[in-house]
Write a structure and sequence with these properties.
The chain is an alpha+beta fold. The chain contains five helices and eight strands.
């Protein structure tokens, strides 16, 4: 795993240009302000406490944010996400749903959990001297993915989610 290239956490948009040759998934947690963008021919708006998960960044256009916009973004390569994704059937269901609407409006307690996940990932990525670096970064990403699944399932229902496939 090329740590700095497979996954990174940043506090601003545009670190990985939309027209980059390398494909990255983007997980964005909005802390303040607003951000508007067009994805898959539809307009979306993020507000404080919203999580946006974009699997196909090349479908994004017309990004505009307010002066007070603050966020944290996880950029990760698809192969890395696949390694970290648990073996449940929710990944496919969630991916399809996020393609139609990439914004998840988080409840206050979910915002706390999500921010903790982002902070944990950032801390693990920075700790390059950890003897089990790859494993702890993957574990932190898997925890975040499971929380993302949970946020999404609570909003859209969880009647057909298996715990393992």
């Amino acid at each position: 795993m090329e740590e700095q290239k497979d996954i990174m956490v940043t506090d601003r948009l545009g670190v990985v240009p939309l027209d980059s040759e390398a494909e990255y998934l983007a997980h964005l947690l909005c802390f303040a302000g607003t951000c508007r963008y067009r994805f898959n021919e539809r307009d979306f708006e993020l507000h404080a406490g919203d999580l946006s998960i974009i699997r196909k960044r090349k479908l994004i256009e017309n990004i505009h944010w307010s002066e007070d916009f603050r966020c944290k973004v996880i950029y990760a390569k698809p192969g890395f996400i696949e390694l970290c994704t648990p073996q449940t059937n929710y990944g496919i269901k969630g991916s399809l749903s996020l393609f139609l609407n990439p914004v998840i409006h988080l409840m206050p307690e979910q915002q706390i959990t999500c921010r903790r996940d982002f902070d944990q990932l950032e801390m693990r990525i920075a700790d390059t001297e950890h003897r089990f670096y790859k494993e702890v970064v993957m574990n932190a990403m898997q925890t975040a993915i499971l929380d993302f699944f949970d946020f999404h399932a609570r909003i859209h229902g969880d009647s057909d989610i298996s715990t393992q496939s």
